[in-house]
Fold each of these.
Amino acid sequence: MSKADDLFVSMCSDIIEHGTTTEGQRVRPRWEDGTPAYTLKRFGVCNRYDLREEFPALTLRRTALKSALDEVLWIYQKKSNNVRDLRSHIWDAWADESGSIGKAYGYQVGVTSRYPEGDFDQMDRVLFDLRENPYSRRIMTNLYTFSDLSEMHLYPCAFNAIYNVTQEPGAERPTLNMLLVQRSQDVLAANNWNVCQYALLLMMVAQVSGMEAGGLVHMIADAHIYDRHVDIVRELIERPHYPAPHVSLNPEVTDFYDFTCDDLVVEGYEHGPQVKNIPIAV
Ligand SMILES: Nc1nc(=O)c2c([nH]1)NC[C@@H]1CN(c3ccc(C(=O)N[C@@H](CCC(=O)O)C(=O)O)cc3)CN21
Ligand SMILES: O=c1ccn([C@H]2C[C@H](O)[C@@H](COP(=O)(O)O)O2)c(=O)[nH]1
């Protein structure tokens, strides 16, 4: 049984049974037809995954792991804010005529800052610190730049990834863990999508740093199910669970900037039928 399924089912049941509704409140997102997109929400959800046990992919339905990896590479490796650099079309609704989503996501990762050792962008600094000073408690990326928010087409949702190294007694290599802070989560459309993305990012960074990927702690401030998703979620969480798939990366890659979607290996991914055409609130 996939542990990610168990966590997903308990989170969704909790939101449905104990969540509060935003119905009647002033909300920003809209459905395609212009109707306000209300949610059932729960504040302060924390899910813990352990990549040493299994990869956290949902089996209730399929998570598009290649597309999820493509998006995380778009942000942290290509450092792009243009949807033309992305294979999927999930960001198209937030792009302008030139394909840009403004000073969001990848743009922020590429911004450089001055350090005693020279200028680094956010990702290069993470890779440098993990190599030179792995037990530092200051290793993180942060996409939430207040002074640029007015130029972002959507404010970053999963915005802060904190990397932390532990040396477990008897372990051959140090363990690389991550704490992901997310201010807002569309549980049906993107929860497992985001979890798998950051699990893959953790695996890539661990591999090029000579470490083992360990814990992924996902902290969500506003975990919500949109009104038009509630019945879909009710059906989804009643489905059978399968064992987690085996997910690995091409072990020959030693430079973070060399990873491509072809380096992702997914074996034995059994899952329920795909939910087609999930409406996305914009
Ligand atoms: N309301 C809302 N929810 C989101 O999840 C979301 C936004 N807005 N705005 C920006 C991005 C776009 N995101 C999305 C949008 C769609 C899918 C989606 O439809 N995924 C499909 C698979 C897509 C594929 O195969 O490439 C799925 O079945 O989950 C996922 C993430 C996440 N973000
Ligand atoms: O990676 C992502 C990106 C976006 N979301 C969801 C979370 C919310 O439903 C919307 C953003 O709306 P806000 O009003 O800015 O919170 O997009 C996600 O879950 N994961």
Amino acid sequence: MSNAIEISGLRKIYAAQGNAPAKEALKGVDLNIPSGSIFGLLGPNGAGKSTMINILAGLVNKTEGRVVIWGFDQDVNPRQSRAAIGVMPQELNMDPYFTPRASLEVQAGLYGVPKADRWTDGLLELVGLTDQAEAYARNLSGGMRRRLLLAKALVHRPQILVLDEPTAGVDITLREMLWNNVRKLNEQGMTIILTTHYLEEAEEMCDEIAIINHGQLVVRQGTRELLSRADGKTLVIDTGEPVDLPALPDGATPEWRPDGRLAISYPPSRIRADQLLDALRSANVPIIDVASEQPDLEDVFVELTRG
Ligand SMILES: Nc1ncnc2c1ncn2[C@@H]1O[C@H](COP(=O)(O)OP(=O)(O)OP(=O)(O)O)[C@@H](O)[C@H]1O
């Protein structure tokens, strides 16, 4: 399977309700998600990410378009396409009187997983809830609830796992545990789709990234290629003390930072770092230390979703 998911011409119009007018949340999106990848779906608030994920999960009906999940067209084989995907939702709602073990058993029942094929103990172990297997959900910490949600998404051994803002508001330890789990599942062949507001996280975790804005796909690229789109780097130089600056190559912009260091932003496509350093040296500007700052996903994201 080369693509885990194929989306074409996907539109969603939420009908008008009361005073709220109809809303076109997705305006004809085409997107293929390669199998085996960790794929980031990013966009500002209200861009349409949850709508897209909910359509994939079979929770929201699309208005138009075609969605193929693991080779199964949603409209032709709804059961198989649903079975191929597991979703870890954002919200932490769960029945307070269910134990993690019972939750997983109920979820497996909903997916029609026969008793003999269930892997409840393995799942509890995977997410580190073995000791809490018989605790009431209301006694679980927020982090444990999230781990349980991850386990619930996996009861039917889906080929594709969707994580909707999995680390919003979680502490570093839990975040690392989640990512270790996700990497392990990905190494075993699972395709991972992730939405997150933490762009650093997307930059670190995702092989490829799609950005949607106002219901449209703005870009879809490998993470590295996407980062290289931002044509801006910064040299940060410790000059010891403020000095007069010589003329710099056209396109370079110097600025003194509050910490006293000199920051020169420049487009690496047109200017090389040694041209900047040569200009400083020939004007006898002391160069005590130099650091280079790369553009990050945040820069690219802001540029692509502006306006
Ligand atoms: N059930 C609904 N009824 C009407 N409009 C909706 C509904 N759900 C979402 N919308 C609207 O559709 C648009 C896209 O919303 P969606 O939740 O998909 O965005 P999002 O990218 O997931 O945003 P966020 O990051 O805030 O979760 C928004 O304008 C939202 O108000």
Amino acid sequence: MAARLIDGKAAAAALRARVGGLAAMFEAATGRRAGLATVLVGEDPASSVYIRSKRSATGEAGMESIHHALPADTSEAEVLALVETLNADPAIDGILVQLPLPSHIDAARVIDTIDPDKDVDGFHVVNAGRLAVGDPAALVPCTPLGCLHLLRAELGKLTGYHAVVIGRSNIVGKPMASLLLGESCTVTITHSHTRDLPEICRSADILVAAVGRPEMVKTDWIKPGATVIDVGINRVPGAEPGKTRLVGDVAFAEAAEVAGAITPVPGGVGPMTIAMLLRNTLVAAHRRAGLPQPEGL
Ligand SMILES: NC(=O)C1=CN([C@@H]2O[C@H](COP(=O)(O)OP(=O)(O)OC[C@H]3O[C@@H](n4cnc5c(N)ncnc54)[C@H](OP(=O)(O)O)[C@@H]3O)[C@@H](O)[C@H]2O)C=CC1
Ligand SMILES: Nc1nc(=O)c2c([nH]1)NC[C@@H]1CN(c3ccc(C(=O)N[C@@H](CCC(=O)O)C(=O)O)cc3)C=[N+]21
């Protein structure tokens, strides 16, 4: 393997430690802990695992984690009412409603009920708009923010690089493209209707794959020396029957022969998402308390 391995797990651990130190200072200054409310509707096993790791990371960082587990048949009105209660609760700085929601609940409606200043996922249209116009008040979605953090650590200033983003979802692809544009990259956004995708990818200095297709990006899609960020989390059948393993949207082993640097799956972007959730919660807490945002967040 020629590429440098971008260690998201280590970067996330460092960020979490920094957030933990600042969370203790927040508590000393305000007499209360920053608080993150999580809401899970139903019992999707993957969602339950994610919520567990988010909650334990929150506690480890010295923040309060308040969880609401609702049965799968909870009505949309009940979820909206819970969000309103959390909006009004002064002890809650961040609200995360785990996605996907059951199909009888309109996720957009739920997200748009969250107070934008408690929207630590950065999914509310107000935060999407703030990000699009470059307003620093934006709470930015955790996954693209984590990708940007890794890119900056790897490359320093990103000015002038050609960045290609595969995927245009509201939670990953679009905000990723906005962030890269904000860093003065030349940005190409691609999706399922893009023609000549491999060729476009080959022109990327920075390639971000957020597709949800296991190992779609092959070695000949990558410009030699490019920095490759793999957002994909795909569970595929493992070596032993009945077992599964996690792979990204990039064919890691072959891509690593060509890339300059690459994130692994697991241990790349995933851990950064959780670290950024803690970061966003602490940022929201400082703003709500009228405190300046601390350096290094
Ligand atoms: N590491 C982490 O913390 C996180 C990881 N993820 C993972 O990232 C991946 C993407 O997530 P998300 O953005 O929510 O997914 P979505 O399904 O919402 O979006 C996928 C995007 O990929 C595009 N796409 C699909 N097939 C192709 C194709 N053959 N060629 C080019 N583009 C294609 C779609 O295009 P179109 O718009 O035209 O349909 C769409 O824009 C998933 O694997 C998910 O599990 C997600 C969130 C957090
Ligand atoms: N409201 C909301 N906000 C989210 O941020 C959100 C969500 N809903 N729904 C689901 C997706 C997915 N997501 C991940 C978080 C951490 C890892 C992560 O830590 N992954 C580990 C591996 C975990 C494993 O082994 O399964 C890794 O990549 O190393 C992955 C994916 C957040 N999401």
Amino acid sequence: MKRIGILGGTFDPPHLGHMIMAEASREQMKLDEVWFIPSHLPPHKQAAEVGALDRLKMVKQAVKSNQRFYVNDLELNREGKSYTIDTIQQLRLENPETEFYFIIGGDMVEYLPNWHRIDELVKLVQFVGVKRPGFEWDHQYDVHEVDIPLIEISSSEIRLRLAEQKTIRYLVPETVYEYIKEHRLYEA
Ligand SMILES: Nc1ncnc2c1ncn2[C@@H]1O[C@H](COP(=O)(O)OP(=O)(O)OP(=O)(O)O)[C@@H](O)[C@H]1O
Ligand SMILES: O=C(O)c1ccc[n+]([C@@H]2O[C@H](COP(=O)([O-])O)[C@@H](O)[C@H]2O)c1
């Protein structure tokens, strides 16, 4: 069985927190690959500031130097909210010889009881959690814990910094930094 990690996210924009959690999960969970899946419409928060195509392109830029990281755009081709249960069902159908591990931050671990059809979802996928500053660790569901240094970086903080014309260099991969500058994203 192939072991694939899934890092779903809004990626508005992708940042080094995402890269560190993906790499630590790959190593500690002995994953063959990590697939980054940008959501079309995030299920639990407001629509992204930047359109789906730019977010997809930024994620492609972010992963391109790592041969075990891939981008999958299946959620961008689906109407309505990007519920994880729909994504996992599709992935399992398309990849029968594969075990999927869904990687989430501490905020999402805390929120798991509210996920759409969570009791079905936990039977279809294993969750991998990484701690995140400011969030409790909820053990209501089985979550494999992966250790990373606590990282304060968030996409919302990056959007705020850009709106205030502050630097975001070294908070995002260099290729993402260049993409944001070139396309003048998140400017007020
Ligand atoms: N610094 C971090 N530490 C741990 N997990 C993180 C971190 N940043 C993001 N994640 C996790 O990565 C996944 C995708 O996150 P997302 O793309 O929504 O970024 P975000 O930084 O949480 O965005 P926003 O600030 O806009 O809410 C989620 O499971 C989230 O919990
Ligand atoms: O399916 C759900 O109900 C659900 C609720 C919250 C989050 N998720 C997924 O968790 C991932 C991280 O979410 P977000 O909004 O923090 O980017 C992303 O792939 C979402 O689709 C999924």
